[in-house]
Amino acid sequence: EFYDSDKLFPAYGFGGRPAQGQPTAHCFAINRNEQAPQVHPVQGISGVLQSYFSSLQWVQLHGPTLFHPVIQRAHVLAQQAAMEGSQKYYVLLIITDGMNNDMQQTIDAIVKASALPLSILIVGVGQADFSNMHVLDADNGRLSTPGDGVNGPMTASRDIVQFVEIAPFLSKGTGAYEAPLARELLAEIPAQFLGYMKSIGKPPPDPINVTIPTDL
C-alpha cells in the first residue's frame, strides 16, 4: 500500500459460492459492495484482510479455479484509465492455493491486457504443484494466443506477469521472509511500468514523496 496514493483497493474473490445453492462465482466483491465496473474499495491492506476474513463467514469455497474473469475485470479498469489519458497504473494481485483450471483463457486475457497500464502479480500459497504457473511468467518469451476463429493469433506486447510461490520463503522463519518475498514479487514492476510508458510515448510522472520501509 506504500505505492498507492489513496490507499483504496477494490477487493475481489473467486472460486466461491456467495450463497448456498448458487453456482461458483469467479469475480465477486468480498465486502459485498458491488459497484460496476469495480467494487467499492476498502481502506488499506488491513481493510482487505478484514473483508477477506469476514467473507469466509458467507462464502463457501468451491472450484473450479478460474483466473480470467478477475483479469478481465482489471482489464476494464485499466482500459478506462488509458482511454481517459490518466497516468494511473494498475497492479492486480492474485493469491491462489492451487493451479488454475483455465490456463488458455487466462493466457488469452493476459495477452489482451498486455497493452494496458496493468501488471499482474500471482502468489501461490500452500503445498500445491505450481510448476505450470511459470508459463504465465513468460520469462522465456512473450505469451501468445492462437486466435478464436474471429480474431487472429496475438502475441503479448510486453510481459506483465510475475509469479512467486511463497513456500520457499517461509523456510526463512517468521519475520524474516516478508522483505525477500516483497522484493521478488515486485522485482519486475519498475520495468513493466516504464515499458508501458514508453509504449504510449509518454515520460513517467514525477514521483510522489512517500515513506517506504527501509527493508523493502
UniProtKB/TrEMBL annotation:
- GO CC terms: plasma membrane
Q: Which InterPro entries match?
A: Copine (IPR045052), Copine_C (IPR010734), vWFA_dom_sf (IPR036465)
What one GO molecular function would you report for this record? Answer: calcium-dependent phospholipid binding
**GO biological process annotation, one example:** cellular response to calcium ion
Highest taxon in the source lineage: Eukaryota
- Every copy of the Copine C-terminal domain together lies at 2-200
Q: Which SUPFAM superfamilies match?
A: vWA-like
The protein's name in its UniProt record = Copine C-terminal domain-containing protein
Highest classification ranks of the organism:
Eukaryota, Sar, Stramenopiles, Ochrophyta, Raphidophyceae
